[in-house]
Specification:
single chain, alpha+beta, 2 domains, two-stranded parallel sheet, 64% helix, coiled coil, Outer membrane protein TolC, efflux transmembrane transporter activity
């Protein structure tokens, strides 16, 4: 049965369906998919030759004398038209191809990271909404209990026991429960808004069905901390830095150029064809190529250092999360197995003592509130524990599609 806030008729959506809809419709994923498609499309042009160049011109045009500015009288004057082609050296083209592939891998890693974030945040948002609904469902029992308690108080007053002021306490409890319900319904509306961020038009829904029970194996999580989506991005980043270093090193090798021209002379003179080959002369590498190579080497070292720093950060964060998970589990179990039964037993005993005229109604009310608070607290601790477990599951599990 779906758990509704009571104010809006909502579409039912299970935990698995929520994750599926988020993966299909989250604009963040669409954005990263477009980025990947763009990087893939650009790969074909990465190591292509630059466009050829066309040129027209005049060689050996006289500028004085009887033949000045005449294109046909002097035998050396030639009108020419031709094409030229620059040819970067093979090492440079290979480095550009490496860089293009690294950009594809980086875009793919960004897509996987975004999918992880969307999946993780949708799971946490769904669980938050689900457990808020669980708390809301408690009010059915609490309001029924309050009506029964009010009947007991009225019976005592009818029998001449207790104080007339006791009749006001059940009414005050009704007001207190109404205020708590309002706070909870406000939190549910906020939770719905968070879900709508990840699900779009599917965000206005009531959770249906039970969520998976997330359980954690600390040793397994520690073994896979290096597979954190944030860390997976550093492999293509390192490959990109390496490719840029290779391109900088390739600048020490000459690039080539080829030029072909057709030259037309005046009547009575033969037309001509010219072919020219050019090459760069990287003679001053100490002041040109070497500084750029040194900069790219440092960029590569920076990527390695940044990855190590982030790995240590995630190792520390994982240990902190595991400590929180362990504490939440113990506290939840302690409240559920020990504190809640004791609180309920205390409330029952005080109610019986009140009916026998041996206890004040205020003590009964305090005990009831303590018992109610524990029931809410157990759900809150369960929600915190399961949300934390879901985050870690979708961060470190090698195949997050496997049911927890």
């Amino acid at each position: 049965m779906a758990l509704n806030s009571g104010s809006v008729t909502a579409e039912e959506l299970s935990f698995a369906d929520a994750l599926q809809q988020a993966r299909l419709h989250a604009p963040q994923i669409v954005q990263q998919q477009a980025n990947l498609f763009g990087a893939t499309a650009a790969q074909r042009a990465a190591d292509a030759l630059p466009d050829p160049k066309a040129f027209v011109g005049v060689d050996n045009l006289p500028i004085n004398g009887a033949d000045r500015f005449n294109l046909t009288r002097d035998f050396m004057t030639m009108q020419k038209i031709g094409v030229m082609q620059d040819i970067p050296n093979r090492a440079k083209r290979m480095a550009r191809a490496e860089a293009a592939q690294a950009r594809i891998d980086e875009a793919a890693a960004d897509l996987r990271l975004t999918e992880s974030v969307v999946t993780r945040e949708t799971a946490v948002a769904w669980l938050n909404r689900y457990f808020l609904g669980r708390q809301l469902s408690l009010f059915v029992d609490l309001e029924q209990e309050n009506r029964l308690w009010a009947g007991v108080v009225q019976s005592q007053l009818t029998a001449g026991k207790g104080l007339m002021a006791d009749a006001l306490l059940p009414q005050q409890e009704v007001i207190s429960l109404a205020n708590r319900r309002d706070d909870l319904e406000r939190d549910i509306r906020k939770a719905d808004a968070v879900l709508e961020r990840w699900l779009g038009r599917f965000g206005k829904f009531a959770p249906v069905g039970e969520p998976p029970a997330f359980t954690l194996n600390p040793d397994t999580l520690r073994q896979h901390v290096e597979h954190h989506p944030d860390l997976n991005r550093f492999t293509p980043l390192a490959n990109l830095a390496q490719a840029e270093l290779h391109e900088a090193q390739a600048a020490k090798k000459p690039d080539w150029g080829v030029e072909l021209a057709y030259q037309q002379r005046g009547p009575g003179y033969s037309n001509m064809v010219s072919v020219q080959v050019s090459a760069d002369l990287p003679l001053f590498t100490h002041s040109r190529q070497d500084p750029l190579i040194a900069a790219k080497q440092q960029a590569l070292a920076e990527v390695d250092a940044e990855r190590e720093a982030m790995l240590r950060e995630h190792v520390a964060a994982l240990e902190a999360d595991l400590a929180d998970y362990k504490a939440l589990t113990r506290q939840r179990d302690r409240l559920q197995q020990e504190a809640a039964p004791l609180a309920q037993r205390k409330a029952d005993l005080l109610l019986a003592a009140y009916q026998a005229g041996r206890a004040e109604l205020g003590l009964v009310l305090t005990a009831r509130r303590e018992s109610q608070a524990l029931r809410f607290q157990i759900i809150e601790l369960t929600a915190q524990q399961q949300q934390l477990a879901a985050r870690l599951h979708y961060l470190y599990t090698p195949d997050p599609e496997i049911a927890p």
